[in-house]
């Protein structure tokens, strides 16, 4: 019982779980005292890192697991694979540089954002994913200034903030002001990955205020990598493939049944 209390007091919860197996292996392999201490400390540190990783992943609210390796660069020839792989070394996070993906819907902007976010999580950075609509609603619905500051801190705190789907929803004056506050607060303090289907010239209409849009873009783009993807939609490609598949299967079945002559 004393040993259990000692584990809790010293916060060695992972070592408590791992110790029986460590002791068994130490006896079998005749570890030295130094080896035993190193393995015991290693087990505790590994357990803490796994727990921290799981906590960061849950807090990040990443909707799906995407990777750079899983992106089909051959389908988007306008996109530089080398540039994306350079971003994947995460120097932009360390230097508080923003990354802006611009392009039509379905061209892989969100995939690349999530791939970089997952890489950042794996390297121990704190991450948070949101859409602009979710962000705007969350900040606007704060019922008093204290709650507003608390929610704003939630988006300011992570090393990397992903804001997806900018351009799909026009913001109210209040929402646009909150969006500006957030970008200004993160300026030179934390990285933002942002995806948008709207060119920067259209942000005045998006925010309903040309002056505010100019001020926001000034901060957002001062330290930023802007990557335009001028290609076709992956989703439309998959839809075209799926639309052909039933017809092919149907023709095959009809050939087998003798309903279609050979060569049709």
Automatic annotation (TrEMBL):
The residue ranges of the AAA+ ATPase domain are 95-228
What CDD domains does this protein map onto? AAA
| Superkingdom | Bacteria
Q: Which keywords describe this protein according to UniProt?
A: ATP-binding, Nucleotide-binding
Q: What Pfam families does the database record attribute to this sequence?
A: IstB_IS21
Q: Which family does it belong to?
A: Belongs to the IS21/IS1162 putative ATP-binding protein family.
Q: What is this protein called?
A: ATPase AAA
Q: What is the originating organism of this protein?
A: Dictyobacter kobayashii
């Amino acid at each position: 019982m004393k040993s259990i209390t000692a584990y809790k007091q010293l916060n060695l919860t992972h070592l408590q779980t791992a110790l029986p197996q460590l002791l068994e292996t130490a006896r079998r392999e005749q570890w030295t005292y130094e080896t035993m201490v190193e393995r015991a400390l290693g087990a505790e540190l590994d357990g803490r890192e796994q727990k921290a990783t799981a906590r960061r992943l849950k807090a990040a609210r990443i909707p799906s697991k995407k990777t750079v390796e899983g992106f089909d660069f051959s389908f988007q020839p306008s996109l530089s694979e080398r540039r994306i792989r350079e971003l994947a070394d995460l120097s932009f996070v360390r230097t508080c540089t923003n990354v802006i993906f611009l392009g039509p819907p379905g061209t892989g902007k969100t995939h690349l954002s999530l791939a970089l976010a997952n890489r950042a999580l794996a390297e121990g950075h704190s991450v948070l994913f949101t859409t602009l609509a979710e962000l705007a609603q969350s900040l606007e619905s704060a019922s008093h200034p204290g709650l507003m500051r608390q929610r704003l801190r939630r988006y300011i705190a992570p090393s990397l903030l992903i804001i997806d789907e900018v351009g799909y929803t026009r913001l109210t004056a209040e929402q646009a002001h909150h969006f500006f506050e957030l970008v200004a607060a993160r300026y030179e303090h934390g990285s933002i990955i942002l995806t948008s289907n709207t060119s920067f010239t259209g942000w005045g209409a998006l925010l309903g205020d040309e002056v505010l849009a100019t001020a926001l873009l000034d901060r957002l783009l001062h330290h930023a990598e802007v990557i335009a993807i001028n290609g076709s939609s992956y989703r439309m490609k998959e839809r075209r493939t799926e639309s052909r598949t039933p017809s092919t299967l149907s023709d095959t079945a009809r050939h087998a049944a003798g309903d279609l002559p050979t060569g049709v």
